[in-house]
Amino acid sequence: MKLRLPNRVIWIFLVILFVIAEVSAIYLSLHNYTQNKSAYIEKKSREFEISLQASLNHFERRSLNYYNDLVKDSGFAQLLQSANGVDAIQKETIRQQIIEKSANLYEQLKADGMPLFSFFFADNTNLVRLHELDIFDDNVSEVRPLIRTVNTKRIPQKGFETGCATAGYYFVYPLYAEGHYVGCVEFGVDFMAIRNDLMRIFPYEFVFLIDKESVLQSTPYVKLVHYNFSDLSEEFFYEKSAQEGLQQDTTGAIPLADIIEFNKVDKDLIEENINKRELFAHGEKLDNGRKYLALFVPLKSFTGSVTAFLIAYANDATLMDYQKDLVIILIIAVGALLVIFFLVLLAIRAFNLIRTNRDQLLESEEKLKELNIAKDKFFSIIAHDLRNPFHGLVGLSEVLMEDYDQMDSERVRRFHKLIFESSRQGYQLVLNLLEWTRVQTGRFQMKPEKISIARIISECTNVLVNQANLKRITLRAQVNSGLYAYSDFQMTATVLRNLLSNAIKFSSEGSEILVRATIVKGEVLIEVEDHGTGIEPNVLSQLFNIGVSHSSTGTAGETGTGLGLILAKEFVERNQGKIWAESKLGQGSIFSFTLPLYKL
User: Fold this and answer.
1) Pair 89, 164: CB distance under 8 Å
2) What ranges do the domains of the chain cover?
3) 3-state secondary structure at position 188
4) Alpha-carbon distance 30 to 329, whole Å?
5) 97 pLDDT tier (thresholds 50, 70, 90)
């Protein structure tokens, strides 16, 4: 029983089914990875949010205790009330009194990690800022919503803000003196203190990014030196004091060098996600083999805008493992698809080869027959045209040898000329045949290079100037000296010499042959124009056909075979060019060919 190959339609149907199955598997893998990644990020972010909230609650309780102690001592509120509306000298005296009175309290605040301590008037201007004594009564405080809100609603407020000179989390409380509202007091914890408190709960490294625009809006120009541009995004700053504190701290769970390297690995992707101001996570494997997860948690200000990012760097390979599992699944799926698809292609190809093999053999056989017929005709033409010059050469030599003594000098000179012409014609035919044979047998090595068109035209015309002078024909060239082509020099010279030789052969005495070279459509176009006999239309259409004889007589009785044109066509096409001819009977011909333009 003979085994029959499946129909091509069945194979295509099987391939489509397999592709659908593979695409479904890939989709499910991606979907599963996305879900696992989202669930893991949500879990980690929830942990960090709980930790952060616990830390902030811890600081809020401390600030409330300090506020209660401060309220019990009515001296602070009374000093704030007495400084409202007085002149600058009196206000400065009261400032110094508050500074002295707050000295012990401020030391306790710093020890508890809450170094940000300020007093504000009811009109939102600052009286004293213990952590920045040189910044007071500043206009930039007007943009701070926490201060404005407390002074308007007269109830405590809290939230992240960039501050006048220091970014952090602030707790603002109203102050009263003898029942009258006089302003507010602000307690704050900077990012370094929050980071240190968080590290008591989690063995991670915490870094803060601060929104650049918020800093520029709320910080005096002279204090911008307290900030550095972030290496992650141009839209965010690092606070210099916190950054320096991080560098000096050797107890961090993750080395600072690893954080710096982590930030560099895929900076563009991290920056793109940061600028979206949304929660995201990023995992990387460093050159030292360590795997880290960075969770970027946006921190919103009192107004709801994102003013900072808390970045939690964890020595965690979970996200990377998810990615590795996904890559393995995808590689297996794609590999299986490629293997099956390759096998199917091989089967289809084998089926097609079996079915079309006979047709290809028949087609090749027909082409081979046509080529053999054309070659037979060509060699017949060559043999016939080789016989002509040698027949003349032998006959003339024989007559000259037998009748030399009876010939006058003029007749001898004429016989010598005829012998020379027959010899030159035969020699040129043999040269062309030799070069054509070398090309057909692969013994002619092409060497494309930068060639000067002006130089090659000059050399070819110099070779043929004597032949032209015999018929008083002028050879003229129109070419730019800076025009270069990229082709084989010898091949190009052979083409041009054959075209010029033909032009001389079919030009009338005293006429002109023009060689032009220009750039047309990004190629070098070379044209040889004569004003000779022209070519009949039926001959013109078969000029470059190897199986058709083109032998014709020139204006001075010159003969040829047309092999030069066959050789010219072969050489031009091997140099990626085209050749053609235009002619009007009795008016002349233009032979044109193109070459690749040399480009720097």
Assistant:
1) no
2) 50-316, 445-600
3) strand
4) 10
5) very high
Please state the rounded mean pLDDT for residues 273-292.
Answer: 86
Residue type, 592: S
3-class state of residue 316 by DSSP: coil
Strand partners, 215: none
Confidence at residue 2, expressed as pLDDT on a 0 to 100 scale: 43
Q: Domain 50-316 - what CATH class?
A: alpha beta
Whether the pLDDT of residue 109 is over 90: the answer is yes
Give 582's strand partners: 590
Closest CA to 236 of 271, 263, 205, 266: 271
**Do 572 and 581 touch, CB atoms closer than 8 A?**
no
- What does pTM read for this prediction? 0.51
CATH architecture of 445-600: 2-Layer Sandwich (3.30)
Written as one string, the DSSP assignment of 470-530 is HTTPEEEEE--TT-EEEEEHHHHHHHHHHHHHHHHHTSPTT-EEEEEEEEETTEEEEEEEE
Q: What is the DSSP string of 412-457?
A: HHHHHHHHHHHHHHHHHHHHHHHHHHHHHTT-----EEEEEHHHHH
CA dist 380 → 376, 546, 547, 579 (Å):
6, 11, 10, 25
Q: How many residues does the chain have?
A: 600
Tokens (6 digits) for 187: 């307690």
- Cα–Cα distances (Å) from 481 to 94, 452, 578, in that order, read 91, 8, 23
Question: Following DSSP, what letter does each residue of 346-363 receive, concatenated?
Answer: HHHHHHHHHHHHHHHHHH
Q: Torsions phi, psi of 204, nearest 5?
A: -115, 175
The tens digit of pLDDT for each residue in 499-553 reads: 998 898 888 888 999 999 999 999 999 999 999 888 888 888 888 876 665 556 6
